[in-house]
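Note to self: user wants both folds in one dump. Writing first protein now.
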Amino acid sequence: MARSCYYLAAFAFFLVLVLAESSPPCSATATLQTITEASIFLLFANTSIDSPTLHSHLATAARNCEAFTAENSGNADARFTWYHSLQPDTPDLIYYIGSWASVREHLIDFVGSPIGRETVGLLASALDPAHLMHWAIDQADCNNRAIETADRLFVIRGFAKDDGQIGRLLGGGGDGDGQDDCDPSGSVTVARRIDPNADDNEFIGLVRLDSSQSGQDAKVLAASPSWGGLTNVTVQILQRIDV
């Protein structure tokens, strides 16, 4: 019961932040621009990552999110994927990556709906929400299917030092517009966090790993000059959970 209350309280906290923005819900259009949820959950100590019940709950949650955003905003191409950490120091860490029409659609429209409440209840039986985060990644851009369908991902989060570094992180253009930037293959995506009251300089980098990279340590990947000296860096190598 305590865990369920904690889970619901975390969602309620984010609802307050989004309501303060007073932004209208996103409507369906032919040129719908989406944002990406890349949130972190922690697996309860008494739950195995291989549990069939857990996998069933994760699959249901993904289907519920996809169905809701498709009907609510016309985001019919949305895909939600679960990943778990391969690093021995964070065996309980779970990432959830998927597409919404807006932050509001996720945290107000979905969470406040019957299907949203069902989803929260399912997840509360096995997971604690650590960080619910949204990023300026439109999954229709730059072949982001390469990211959301990856078997293995490298994830780096950190904070840019100044506007010049923001421009370099977003592909060297220097516009600092906070929109996503990725290479033509879609295997590398960088974006700014867009949650209400979040730090404007917080960024995420998502890198699709192929089989030749799968054995690399996260710290080796994080040392790449591509990241331009982000501060307060956290890194993960993730494996997709097949559900």
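First done. Writing the second protein, which came from a different request thread.
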Amino acid sequence: MPEDTINFLKRLAEQNPERGIFSAVINDKNGVTVRLKSGLVINDILPESYDIVNIKNSRPRIQMLKIIIDTSLLHNLYYQAGFAHEIGHVIYPNEQQESDEIYSLEFEVLTQKFFTKPLDYRLSIISKQLKLKMNNEIKAWEAGKPIADLIGVDRNKYEELMILGLQGHYSAQVDYISHLIKDNCPDITQNTQISIFNSLTNTDDQMRFSEFTEYNRKMVEMNNRAVNQFDQRIGILRT
């Protein structure tokens, strides 16, 4: 996407008083065209390779170059906020470059050669994934704000869902890297120092591995709460 897409959306939101979704039309292949009351067609601001797809009882999410939504839930302002966030993922500058860097790190961890690297190196690559993924998520929430404004989502509701989304994402990623450490760092000790990115303070916190184990336990509990509250607000039925 051109780097001025977000600024264009901000100007459109400032200049056009019309708010809301005018229509979400499903075609015969379950693709969706979303038109706003401002006249903006959401599909037109997405990269050419992206589609919007309707799947029942789905959280707004991106999968295989598709933004997946449940059109029957688009009346819910919180669901609209989640939709705007997913759009944010594909319109902010350098998103593809940052995603490629994350994928590169994920792939490196899977290689046999990675297992032979020094412990400090392995831990740094694993920890870097957490930082990059959280920065990616934060930027997407910020980039989604002008879309949320055009849709008519109250900013307080947007930021409320953003907090829950970031909590859930952070805690899930902390648990993910705990499994990476377990699988790839058998030589780690309870006193080994590791660096863990703190998304609240935007700092790299140092802690012993024994402290990280307890930290991760708390994150798992936070993830369960955040995901439950997120789904309740957007109207998802959990099975």
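Dump finished. Worth passing along: The two ends are 37 Å apart (CA to CA).
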